[in-house]
């Protein structure tokens, strides 16, 4: 890996090997992916998985990432926002039922 890669790439790849697993996601109708987080996850593991996933989605030509986090996973919000990149449209969704 050259040192000219993005910070996102440098933090995820070491010696050409990706770190972390891809987040579970489904394709949407607009060329993006929807990540529907349901299982608890440590914020460090989420950070690695999100960076790895975003690199893969970018390679696949995806244009946007929608992340759904239930209130029980609020600990991941700050991490999700930190990974924001201009390479992909990025949105964090919450749903409140009244």
Features:
98 residues; alpha/beta; Aminopeptidase; four-stranded mixed sheet; two-stranded antiparallel ribbon; 3 helices; 30% helix; globular; disordered N terminus
Concise overview:
The protein is built from three helices and six strands, in the order αββββαβαβ.
Explained architecture:
The chain is of the alpha/beta class. It has one domain: Gcn5-related N-acetyltransferase (GNAT) (Aminopeptidase, 3-Layer(aba) Sandwich). 30% of the residues lie in helices and 21% in strands. The protein is built from 3 helices and 6 strands. The chain has helices spanning 7-12, 43-59, 77-82; strands at residues 13-14, 17-18, 25-27, 33-36, 64-68, 89-93. The chain has a 4-stranded mixed beta sheet with strand order 3-4-5-6. Strands 1-2 form a two-stranded antiparallel ribbon. A hairpin with a 5-residue loop joins strand 3 and strand 4. The chain is globular, with a radius of gyration of 13 Å.
Fold blueprint:
Layout: H1 7-12, E1 13-14, E2 17-18, E3 25-27, E4 33-36, H2 43-59, E5 64-68, H3 77-82, E6 89-93
Parallel strand pairs: 4-5, 5-6
Antiparallel strand pairs: 1-2, 3-4
CATH architecture: 3-Layer(aba) Sandwich
Kindly name the structural category: alpha/beta
Determine Rg (CA atoms, Å). Answer: 13 Å
> First CA to last CA: what distance?
49 Å
Side by side, the strands of the main sheet go 3-4-5-6
Describe the largest sheet: 4 strands, mixed
Indicate the percent of residues in helices.
Answer: 25-40%
Task: Estimate the global geometry from the Cα principal axes.
Answer: globular
Give the domain tally: 1
Which segments are poorly predicted (pLDDT under 50) over 5 or more consecutive residues? 1-12
CATH topology grouping:
Aminopeptidase
Multimer state: single chain
Give the beta-strand count.
6
